[in-house]
Amino acid sequence: MSSKQNIIMPETVISGSSKFSAAELSFDDFQKIVINDYRIGFESRQASLIGRREVLTGKAKFGIFGDGKEVAQLAMAKAFRAGDWRAGYYRDQTFMFATGMTNLKEFFAQLYANPDIEKDPASAGRQMNCHFATRFVNADGTWANQAETLNCAADISTTAGHMPRLLGLAYASKLYRQNKELEYLKQFSVNGNEVAFGTIGNGSTSEGLFFETFNAAGVLQVPMAISIWDDAYAISVPAKLQTTKEDISEILKGFQREEGTNGYEIFKVRGWDYVALCETYERAIDVCRREHVPVLIHVTEMTQPQGHSTSGSHERYKSKDRLTWENEHDCLVQMRKWMIESAIATEEEMDGLEATAKKYVREIQREVWNELAGEINEDIGQVSVLIEQVAAQSENAVKLRGLVSELKATVDPGRKDAISAGRKTLRITVKEKLTAKQDLVSWLGAERVKNDERFSSKLFTETPQSPLNVPVIEPAYDDDAKLLDGREILNACFDSNFERDKSIVAFGEDVGAIGDVNQGFAGLQNKYSDLRISDTGIREATIVGQGVGLAMRGLKPIAEIQYLDYLIYATTVLSDDLASLSYRTRGGQKAPVIVRTRGHRLEGIWHSGSPLGLILNAMRGLHICVPRDMTQAAGMYNTLLRGDEPALVIECLNGYRLKERLPSNIGEFTVALGKAEVLREGTDMTVVSYGSTLRIVMEAAEELEKMGIQIEVIDPQTLYPFDTENVCGDSLKKTNKLLVVDEDMPGGGSAYILQKILETQNGYYHLDSQPKTLPAREHRPPYGTDGDYFSKPSMDDVVEVVYNMMNEANPVKYPKLY
Ligand SMILES: Cc1ncc(C[n+]2csc(CCOP(=O)(O)OP(=O)(O)O)c2C)c(N)n1
Ligand SMILES: [Mg+2]
Question: Which of 607, 623, 766, 779 is an active site residue?
Answer without folding.
Answer: 607
